[in-house]
């Protein structure tokens, strides 16, 4: 039972990352009609926002201290981050909280990237076949990925969670388990709540604002909304920016769980696409539901008890489910009729 | 160029093709691409891309998991080397047959859907195969290390000629398959593969596949059962990939799971599009360009760049090195991605479309009366019409 | 619209027509019903198409004409009732199977192969006729298929498109696309050709050319069902006319009977003099 709860938590964690990426992917697809293979790169860029912020915060000043000598007899170098030298303890706190702090930086940055991407590239592909869209965004993803690789190197760069939440929580106690049965890292719990609130705010935004209503109407029937004389172009840009921000924030917050490297975007993209298709192309609820579902199933499949019965199932479960869903329910779990069909 | 091919007889096309392929070591010398390793790669990936083009170019079904068949072909060939003989013929046959069988199964399921759903299904199968090859199938694939030949492999058919020291090399009835002999063997296979593709492109079967790409619904109401057509095309292109995979094992008897990864599938898509999907020689051009970039550009480093721009004044030299440096060596993928975007944005028909445009432009300039029906037939791959939906 | 009465006299007229052609009918539509949600698109439709004749189905917009056609070619499954063609039940068959049974539809919005040349467009249905539903002839050369090419040239000649034979189908005008459609249907020599508004959106002189063409091929003994708005077309071609309104056949008979029928005038023609 305790293992069961742990796997559900693990699955929700992973699943909410899938859900956040898939949400943007399907939002862009549903409104703009564009299949964006560079969406994973946005997730990765978000993660590298956190890396950059941490790098900047930990830029060090080097002071030679003649009083202390190293083993070689040279004066010892005292390294202090500038920010600590300037702001004292506040600086230290800032470094400690560099991951959540980078959200402030990531939001405008991702918005800018999203808008630039839509205006500069995606816009010209609205009328082109889906195959072209896939290919050009695939090319863009490679470019972004290579630039990041050139800047930050090929190795994963670990990002520490703030000290307060670096440990683990014995949440089993809350659920009536014995002590030490269900121990879960604090940061993953934070991530879970963070994702939930992002998802909730995106849905609230789409449901309760005029803008969101137009977007949802656009997802249901693009032509009609276009005919209403609404300036759909500007909204498309904003939708794309929004999707970029959501993916970027997911990337920022996921860094303490998975050390970012340049190809993490591609890895998540493939899975997120599967999630979108399982959920149903163009269905926001479907994307979230499928993300969580697949995350949980993947967690369960990686349990030793299950692996001993079905060896290798943890490696293929998501894809296997995708195949089955596509064959049994061609439109995905919550897909609508007439989306991407010929 | 396409026009020339579209009107020439099979014989003349093949004669030109054979001459070009067999003389490749000569005419590739000036650009420094004449060493056997690279030539083999050109031929092998050429076969892979030709096969992929039979599916994607003719039917418009974009498979994102074609590298699976490449991997299966390699594994089958290496196992043939291990268990049966170092002769390449059975290895290639096994590679083709096994990948054909897998293509039949994967195709049968994936082709129940079309459009992006088909792409995702093939991608899902590819990822499953890749993940399994890395994990539970280790006894067959040797996991991360990759499947290799060993001295003590049984090789039942070679038993007579045993008593060898070291790992034997692959042979074609005694002819060693390394270096130039390896290239010429691949080149002959490439020529055969191209001939089959030429026949398919010009056959009623090929025309029907093109019609499916153009308007599948209409095909059904015209009295065709489209699924067997698509499945046949899928199996043929899977067998081409298996053949390419087997040839990889022939030239270098090693098979690793990374050959099946979806990035490898993406690469063949890239090569085909870059050259021009749906054209006969476009995919080969794409392969040539990409493999050339990979091998030549990725070997360049800063010093080499300085040597190249040496003839310029120093500030200009430094400036050019500064600009080009990120695009070569480690960064050749960046060049690839950028090039790919440029092609998709400006030349959706790939290099072949560029060649056509240039040749039409030149013709239009010098022979202003060239507006006959044929010139309209040339503009096949215009943006927007590709009918990908 | 419920005010349209269905007097018994008219019904008997239809019955009478049916009994006359019972022996040599190719297509039998029996008690077909089709609902879309709450909307009744077809209500107990009975229709029998006589061999070798041109049968027109007319009716106001939304009367269910296209639905009826879609039911015939298997694009839609009827809720109840049966469609028998040449003695075989067509319900539940795949589109390509219906095609090979000999029932071919010419689409209202041109469904052509935009990326192929006109000649290729017409060769495809000819190949379907010759090769069947599936044939792996990957090692024959298309340029050696002289019979198919001649046949296709002939069909293009018939519809007056031979001068465009090597053009891409996407590049020709809409009216030409309609005629290309027609050529694609005719080349298969179907037992029954279903024409969905073959002249809709055509200029007057194009319409006349199409009528001429249809009259010309009438002698070949091909049965045709035409759905049409244009009364000029209907009365210059049809041997038999059925009037569909509100998903029901209200009248069925020879052109002269329809022309003079007051119910038809009221229901469809709005009292307009024919």
Keywords:
A: 342 residues, two-stranded antiparallel ribbon, 4 strands, C: 274 residues, alpha/beta, four-stranded antiparallel beta sheet
Give a structural overview.
The complex is a heterotrimer of chains A (342), B (389) and C (274). Chain A is mainly α. Chain A has one domain (2-328). Chain A has helices at 2-32, 39-57, 82-87, 89-96, 98-120, 130-152, 186-208, 210-220, 222-227, 232-254, 264-279, 284-301, 304-309, 313-328, and strands at residues 60-69, 75-81, 168-169, 184-185. Chain B contains 19 helices and 4 strands. The two termini of chain B are 29 Å apart. With 274 residues, chain C is an alpha/beta fold. Chain C has helices at residues 8-21, 65-72, 95-101, 118-131, 146-159, 174-186, 204-218, 231-237, 255-260, 262-269; strands at 25-36, 39-50, 54-58, 80-85, 88-89, 103-106, 192-196, 223-227, 240-245, 248-253. The longest helix of chain C has 15 residues, at 204-218. Chain C is globular, with a radius of gyration of 19 Å. Mean pLDDT of chain C is 80; it is low at 1-22. Chains in contact: A-B, B-C. Chains A and B meet through α6, α11 and α14 of A and α7, α13 and α17 of B.
